[in-house]
Amino acid sequence: MMTSLGISAFIIFCFFCLSWRMSKSAVTSFYFSAIFSHWTALGDINISTALILLATMLLFACGRTRFNLGRVVAFSLFAFCILGGAAASTVNSPGLGAALGRFGKMALVFLPLFFPVRAEAVEIGAMVKAFVICTLVFSIPCLLFFGADPGFMGTPRISGFFEDANYFALISLICLIYASQYMQNKSWSWLLLAQLICSQAMTMLAITLVYFLILRRREVSKKMLAIFPVIIGLGYVYIIYRVQQTDAIVLESDYQTSFVAMKFNSVFFRFFAQFSAMDIIQNRPSVFWFGYGSGHSVELFGRVLHNTYVQLFFDSGIVVFLGVLLVVGLGSFRFDRQKPVFIILIISSLLFDAFFMFIFPFALVIATSNPEHADL
Predict the structure, then answer these.
(1) From CA 230, how far away is CA 60, in angstroms rounded?
(2) Nearest to 342 by CA among 331, 326, 353
(3) What count of other Cβ atoms lies within 10 Å of the Cβ of residue 368?
(4) pLDDT greater than 90 at residue 189
(5) H or E segment at 137?
(6) Where are the transmembrane segments (predicted)?
(7) Using alpha carbons only, what angle is made at residue 123 by residues 122 and 129, rounded to the nearest 5 degrees?
């Protein structure tokens, strides 16, 4: 365990030094390094959360964020809502410490939505280049030391210096969208696309194809963008509620010999966990209103729910669930330059946690950055 933490810390330090060297900004380089650390072994023991909190405080202290009374009032109202939800969840799962921890993490995730980082203070190009370079340098050593999930025909799924190939693919896609739009040297785009392919994250590869064929060519209205999280979040929860009452999903029997069957079963097991969560929500009104509390999915279902919407509903109840969807929808205007990224975040949240793994603030900072800094 200590060796894994040491290796991850060394790689993140290298990323920070490289990003700082290219951007000349220690504060924003530290912020991105802290977020990247959450997708390594450092995220397993919450060291990364403490780093993100420290990095966020430095952004405020150095005047890198937009700050005024209106933003303070809006954030305070949101914080009051999620704090009340966290406290109410202790009705079903006593443990004030865990509830406050969930509140703190949720507040930290959505903080850049209320206090955005100044566009002129962020050098995204340097971060993208540092990410690609560190991936090229450390992918093979991490593969040899940490191992990898099996992919097509038993080949290893590359996850760079991250723990999970799916998160690695999503971050690569977000960076690819930025690089293809704003970075003049297209070699970085091709390298990011190669990272996506090597991750063998089939869903993310399909989303990448949809982006280049559809999302990149069509303009999405701001109104549609604002209601999109509500439509997807509520729609998915309703579908899970309805399907949970049937026996429509059956496991594939040939999963040991068929790669496709193995992939289907992996998704089906996630559905079964979500069905169990929905069954509890349906039969216990207190869970419906206040949530079961954070951190109980593995204990109850043997796994996390691999879905932001059902997980949030189960953990925090209907009030916080709807409040978060509303805030995300209203904050969609922050993604005016990167509307496809917002759509991809909402869709990918159906398969894994794109919010509370700090992917949302990462994408938000990129979306509000100044494109003129792309090749710094």
Answers:
(1) 31
(2) 331
(3) 20
(4) yes
(5) helix 124-146
(6) 41-60, 72-91, 124-146, 167-184, 190-212, 224-241, 309-330, 342-367
(7) 145
pLDDT tens for residues 123-169?
A: 888 999 999 999 999 999 999 988 888 887 788 999 999 999 999 99
Q: How far is residue 66's CA from residue 68's CA, in Å, rounded to a whole number?
A: 7
Contact present, 215 and 314 (Cβ < 8 Å): no
Task: Count how many residues are written for the chain.
Answer: 376
- CA nearest neighbour of 313 among 341, 349, 260: 349
d(CA 146, CA 157): 12
Distance CA 149, CA 163 (A): 10
What does the radius of gyration of the chain's CA atoms come to, in whole angstroms? 20
b/e for 205-226, b at 16 or more Cβ within 10 A? bebbeebeeebeeeeeeeeebb
Distance, C-alpha 28 to centroid of its chain: 19
Lowest-confidence segment of 9-23, 95-109, 218-232 by average pLDDT: 95-109
User: Three-class SS of residue 246?
Assistant: coil
Element (H, E) at 157: none
- Rounded to whole angstroms, how far apart are CA atoms 34 and 13? 10
- How many other C-beta atoms lie within 10 A of the C-beta of residue 343? 22
- How many CA atoms lie within 13 Å of 203's alpha carbon, on the beta-carbon side? 17
Phi first, then psi: give them for residue 62, nearest 5 degrees.
-90, 5
